[in-house]
């Protein structure tokens, strides 16, 4: 009887150990699946649908709207920073930005922002996502828009 209990306890411990190892493996795999993939270095052409997915996954992705002030005030992506492509100091304004951070850049329909890609490269920006269907594509997809100016956050003060 004692021998039978010893074997039984060994099997119980073995099964418990295997069960625990399997649960730990599944927990790690689930955590890895939920973790978003890091934003890739380089210059990427994307549409609005991909942009909204990236913004949901990556809170650090900075939206850069390069339309005119009038266009921006009429409607823009929530939390977008504004730098007017047509202003004389456009290059200087871009030069003030952190080149290591990831940016989602757009204009109205992709023309101005497409031309600006060369400037981003020349200035040494490392991660640019060009939303090539522009704000018009964003609106057409029914994605959220804010009118007027963005309220300054505590970080901006």
Task: Annotate the secondary structure layout.
Elements lengths: L1 H33 L7 E5 L1 H10 L4 E4 L3 H6 L6 E2 L7 H6 L6 E5 L4 H13 L3 E5 L2 H7 L17
Parallel strand pairs: 1-5, 2-3, 2-4, 4-5
Give the number of domains.
Answer: 2
Order of helices and strands: HEHEHEHEHEH
Structural class: alpha/beta
Low-confidence stretches: none
Can you give keywords for this protein?
single chain, 157 residues, alpha/beta, Oxidized Rhodanese, domain 1, 2 domains, five-stranded parallel beta sheet, 6 helices, elongated
Task: Give a description of the structure.
The chain has 157 residues and is of the alpha/beta class. The protein folds into 2 domains: 1-35; 42-140, Oxidized Rhodanese, domain 1. The chain has 6 helices and 5 strands; from the N terminus they run H-E-H-E-H-E-H-E-H-E-H. Strand 4, helix 5 and strand 5 (127-131) form a beta-alpha-beta unit. It starts with a helix and ends in a 17-residue tail after the last helix.
Quick synopsis:
The protein is of the alpha/beta class. The chain has helices at 2-34, 48-57, 69-74, 90-95, 111-123, 134-140; strands at 42-46, 62-65, 81-82, 102-106, 127-131.
